[in-house]
Amino acid sequence: HEVGHAMVAYKQKNAEPVQKITIVPHTEGSLGYTLLMPEEDKTNLRTRDELMAKIAVSMGGRAAEEVVMNTMTNGASQDIQEATSIARNMVAMYGMSDAVGMVALGSVRNQYLDGGYGLDCAQDTAAIMDREVKRILDECYKDAVQVIRDNREDMDKVVAYLLEKETIT
């Protein structure tokens, strides 16, 4: 799973560089993590391509499960939430969707109450936005699966090394 994230990040032109991969269990319940860090001079501004790469990297763990084990686990739930949040923001807040256009229809409700996410649009528009978020997620997942398939041999070598050392920096 973690090597899937790392492999997709390594092969994506617009992804942040991999700093660390570990399979040492974490106190929050995760069985490991992959740490990506932006370049030192990088601002918080992200291009559409960078956000798409970030989604693909988030999908890399699930893609590796599918390609390598021919199954899926619930270990990707947080990754899916993160990817969905990025895609939703691209569509509803950043104006990065041709289907919806350059409008800001999403808003974060009071973060101190429920922190919910709201849409300021008609139900028809919300349905279009849902389809566009799904399209973005599907495209990025397809890209992640292809990276894993194309680099399976290298990935297996990294997995073997990681199983021996537990952490790669």
Distinctive features:
169 residues; three-stranded antiparallel β-sheet; mainly alpha; 5 helices
Short description:
The protein is mostly helical and 169 residues long. Helices cover 53% and strands 10% of the residues. The chain has helices spanning 2-11, 48-69, 77-92, 123-150, 152-165; strands spanning 18-22, 33-36, 106-108, 117-119, 167-168.
Structure description:
This protein has one domain (2-168): Peptidase M41 (Methane Monooxygenase Hydroxylase, Chain G, domain 1), CATH 1.20.58.760. It is built from 5 helices and 5 strands. It has helices spanning 2-11, 48-69, 77-92, 123-150, 152-165, and strands at residues 18-22, 33-36, 106-108, 117-119, 167-168. Strand 3 (106-108) and strand 4 form a beta hairpin. The longest helix is centred in the C-terminal third of the chain and has 28 residues, at 123-150.
What's the CATH superfamily, by name? Peptidase M41
Q: Calculate the terminal CA-CA distance, rounded to whole Å.
A: 17 Å
Helical region count?
5
Shape assignment: elongated
Write down the secondary-structure element order. Answer: HEEHHEEHHE
The CATH class is identified as Mainly Alpha
Spans with pLDDT under 50 lasting ≥5 residues?
none
- Give the total of domains: 1
Question: How is the topology of this model organized?
Answer:
Blueprint: H1 2-11, E1 18-22, E2 33-36, H2 48-69, H3 77-92, E3 106-108, E4 117-119, H4 123-150, H5 152-165, E5 167-168
Antiparallel strand pairs: 1-2, 1-5, 3-4
Helix pairs in contact: 1-2, 2-3, 2-4, 3-4
